[in-house]
Design a protein that fits this description.
3 copies of one chain form a homotrimer.
Chain A (H helix, E strand, L loop, with lengths): L1 E2 H8 L2 E3 L5 E2 L1 E2 L9 E4 L6 H6 L4 E4 L10 E4 L3 H12 L8 E2 L4 E2 L4 E2 L4 E2 L4 E2 L4 E2 L4 E2 L4 E2 L4 E2 L4 E2 L4 E2 L3 E3 L4 E2 L4 E2 L6 E4 L2 E4 L6 E3 L4 E2 L4 E2 L7 E3 L4 E2 L4 E2 L4 E2 L4 E2 L4 E2 L4 E2 L4 E2 L4 E2 L4 E2 L3 E3 L4 E2 L7 E4 L5 E2 H12 L1 H15 L1
Parallel strand pairs in A: 4-5, 5-6, 6-7, 8-11, 9-12, 10-13, 11-14, 12-15, 13-16, 14-17, 15-18, 16-19, 17-20, 18-21, 19-24, 20-25, 21-26, 24-27, 25-28, 26-29, 27-30, 28-31, 29-32, 30-33, 31-34, 32-35, 33-36, 34-37, 35-38, 37-39
Antiparallel strand pairs in A: 1-3, 2-7, 22-23
């Protein structure tokens, strides 16, 4: 789809080789064929580089002499690979305009050049920015606002009063703005606290499939610019997520959690409510964050995986740790 | 939207101040302005109370002398706040009647005064109670029954033979009645055990976004009256959840789990199959319940979060606990 | 719905009793009435067998003399029960043909005898095999392929280039082919790595409600023949799942995880990325798999559940394990 020369131009990179060489896909070094573009980002993959049959490889100047095929030079081959991926991604959006089966309320405002698929519903008071793509079955509630160039994949749901910035991606089955889990105990059982806040999402945010972001109780739940969230993440009411923080799959944040900028939460992490995590914190997989974190760094909990038989022995002793500790103290006293 | 006098009347509370004062929203004590209603439930927030600019505050008689603005008197300010929230919640339901794009099977029975949005499907044999709201894209399978006043948010799915009581709320992407995970090993691989039971949900139940409640194998999966369930909870086939139990986000219950009344399961808890949890049990976040619980109380497992470097030292020693224990015994024997 | 004689014929089993006896449902031994079929698979249930009021029971020849009612003989009563369940499952599919409200792109190819419900969308280039059932609101993206007899329940979503084999079942709100969570750090924040691979799913696979299977980055995410996956499972990009492996609810697999054949992952298990699990591995509930597993067997991690007060004592000592260990060494040295 691109010649090597065109690709170099689009990525703004110097290249060495046949400018007319035709490249029509991306592949890893050892799978790439003569029409594929590959990349190498570290010396660990030098053996594959030496053997590669790729049409061209993105690499640093340092590695260029070791490359048997055409190449593009970059100080950040991985980043350039990301940018190249955008060039090779197929278009999958519905055609320009509004599908006949969509239901657009009279009071909704659509910009020019939107692509709205079959069965989409946009309620009154919603504002849809230029270039927005709403795939089939998407629901956009009252008074929502979608910024320029944002895409929402099939069947995702935005309740009312959810604002999404420019150039965001919301994947299928995501739910933005469902009620936070707020109840008061009444004489006959739980009584619902209606959730009167909304959701505010900054620019360039990506939200994974099946992820849920609840609306705030009184104020808004806030996801800042540049945040990336994987699939099946639960973000409860009143959370604030700082800029460029990355949240991997199956993470659960309880209500009113504040997370700083540039944090990474690995898969399956849980955070109890009403705690604050400062900027630049990394939490390892399946850790439960039970208190605020005020120092940047890496945090963990749990026990190491083992064969079940061995693990059971350790687990039994875990339950006896207090007694073990007391016996140790008794021994120490015995010696002194 | 309400005058102070009207609000007092609707909440059945005595008040002190200007009956004509106009209140058009709820806010926390320190964010509230002169047209907002706030509340204070404990002495911890007395400093905010002293400074508040709210139009009116719900509080106990004991705190009334400390309140610089108009107030409503209640022994349960938090509960009254919950009830007030209902008064200020905007209406977001589709208009009365059945949207032209909905597909209602000939054999379905709709009560008067239902609100059925675009693209809704109701299959034959389903019975929809008075005042039910089915938002856009909701699917209601054969022989389902929905009680009076129940609301189902966009794109939620009810398989066949799911009964939901009166005044329930089912959030978007919830799935009620999908097949339980039942298979027998056959000579060529897994063979499906078709799930022939249904789902029975009592009155006043709320089920969160993306939550799944599987149908029973032979009998029904049962969720009792007044249960509240947060987002992304998985409830497997044949579970029974007792009255007024609260289940927080990302909890997973394996098959045939029985949970009593008035329990609370915090976020991320897992329960293995075929165990029973008695009434009034609290399970803390991310605990794995591996056996039946027969005594009310609070239950936990896991290890404390720490800096990853420190945590690793403890984790290594955890794997050696049996050896550590044996060495301790050897020392004790050496002394005796 | 069946006579005992018919059932015996369909299951290819010998029987003893009244061939005309009418059986119209399945039930457990102690709930079954005279028109129900039950089964007994082990001696543990002999007391229920002795008391059963079932119309007929599936059991081994060994137990036949202990059965007070008609029976069907099988060496695998549980498996025969599974097969019987298929006979009693009600039909819930939409009628043959394409519903008027479905949107089938001109370039899509539908086999004969498909059942396509209201609001379904099938994009260009998709191929739908004979006997496929697409329930209401299902979305099938460009260039997808669905094998013969596959069923997709309401509102599930398949992005483009997802192939599903024959006789698969995909439950509601499942998402197949959403973008894997791939980003490179750029100067201004995360830059998306467009996910150019697809998803390839073998024959006879079942995928639960709300489960997400991401598309591959360059190659495909692969789920082999006979795999069964429960609800709310997250399978990240580039994973490979081997034949007949079973994955229970709420499991999360990070990117590029390779899992062998005939494995079982219990509920809530997490697997970090880029590890390999060999065939015939069992992982117990909520274990975090942090390294490759090269030997068949059972693997675990975690600590035992306890009353919160007791657990806290152990948890505190866990944090002190390194110090405890050092004090133990000091004692040992003191003795030597």
């Amino acid at each position: 789809m691109y010649s090597l020369g065109e690709l170099a131009g689009r990525l703004d990179l110097a290249f060495s080789g046949d400018a007319q060489r035709s490249l029509n896909g991306l592949a890893s070094l050892n799978r790439a064929g003569p029409t594929d573009l590959a990349f190498v980002a570290d010396r660990e993959h030098l053996p594959e580089l030496a053997q590669t049959r790729a049409g061209a490889v993105i690499l640093t100047a340092e590695l260029a002499p070791l490359c048997p095929v055409d190449h593009l030079l970059s100080d950040s081959p991985y980043l350039m690979f990301a940018r190249a991926s955008a060039l090779f991604a197929p278009s999958t959006q519905p055609p320009l305009g509004v599908h006949a089966s969509a239901t657009i309320a009279p009071g909704a405002v659509l910009a020019q050049e939107v692509c709205i698929g079959p069965g989409v519903v946009v309620e009154a008071g919603a504002t849809i920015g230029a270039g927005v793509v709403l795939d089939a079955g998407v629901y956009v509630g009252r008074d929502c606002r979608l910024g320029v160039g944002t895409r929402i994949y099939p069947n995702a749901v935005l309740y009312h009063d959810v604002h999404v910035g420019d150039n965001c991606i919301i994947h299928s089955q995501a739910v933005l703005g469902a009620d936070g889990f707020g109840f008061a105990r009444g004489p006959g059982g739980w009584e619902k606290i209606h959730q009167l806040g909304g959701v505010r999402i900054g620019d360039c945010v990506e939200i994974g499939a099946g992820t849920t972001v609840d609306r705030g109780t009184l104020d808004h739940t806030v996801i800042s610019e540049g945040v990336i969230i994987d699939n099946q993440v639960q973000i409860a009411h009143n959370c604030h997520i700082g800029k460029n923080t990355a949240i991997a799959g199956c993470v659960g944040l309880a209500g009113s959690t504040i997370i700083g900028a540039n944090c990474t939460l690995a898969g399956g992490v849980g955070v109890v409510g009403h705690v604050e995590i400062c900027d630049d914190v990394h939490v390892t997989g399946m850790t439960m964050v039970t208190r605020s974190i005020t120092e940047p760094g890496s945090y963990s909990c749990g026990t190491p995986m083992a064969e079940t038989r061995e693990w059971k022995r350790s687990a039994v002793r875990f339950s006896q740790l207090e007694v073990i500790y007391q016996r140790l103290i008794a021994l120490e006293r015995g010696r002194s």
